[in-house]
Design a protein that fits this description.
Belongs to the proteasome inhibitor PI31 family. It contains seven helices and five strands. The protein is an alpha+beta fold.
Length: 269
Amino acid sequence: MESASSAKTGDFFYGWDLLYKTVQSDVDKKPDLLIALVHFLLTKHYNFRCVGIGDDKTLPEEEGSELLPDNWNDDDTKYSLRYVHDKMLYLLLGHITEDALLINLMDINTKKVSNICVEPETLVAAVKGGINTLMPSASEIVDRYRKELLDPVFTGNSREVTTQTTTTSPRPSGSDPLRIGEPRRGGSFTPGGFEPRPFGFPDIGRGDLDPLGRGGPGNLFTFPSRPNMGPGHMPRFDPFGPINPNMPGQGGPNPDHMRPPNWDPDYYM
């Protein structure tokens, strides 16, 4: 529904003048205008149809009208109007006290009842004229009607309301909602079915999980460059493959590759 802040400047009250002209001769007290404003809100913005006066709880067969019925304000102390929406019956009841108007809206089907108390002498400035002359705070009154009278009882939507569709970004194909972090990109090979490294820990041992030997240094940390390492030899890997005796330096694997610390070959003799 259109908010109160924009009601005066928009076309929210378009149609009020026509309704007012049909009842202008009947209006003789300020509470009449507050009831007429509720009727305008129900019929124009909530698609209710008035099916007469009284408090009969039997659902009528007629479709109803957007006009106020005859004799709607004949009683000096109360109002009783019946409305239909989507084959559901609603009662709008008003009671005039010394300085206030108590209005109730009842859903006959669900038995939900709402109420609001308004002060005609404060809210209604005149009984003749345009909407801004009659009720200078008409927008605020309508907002109160909607929040205190309609929302607690009526579960449908105002014809002013537009449906908002929540869009969800599509999940990439093959993504796992329980996975921590994003899969690794780039040159490191990740065997199918293995989870990416969690929490940014070093990718140690990944190469040992791949039978083709791709994707990392295995169970050894990658050694930094030689500077600042102090004395000692860098670890060496002796490649092996088909032996070609005509090429110098080729041969089988060197058995001393990566010997344990304090290696003593006589210990195994």
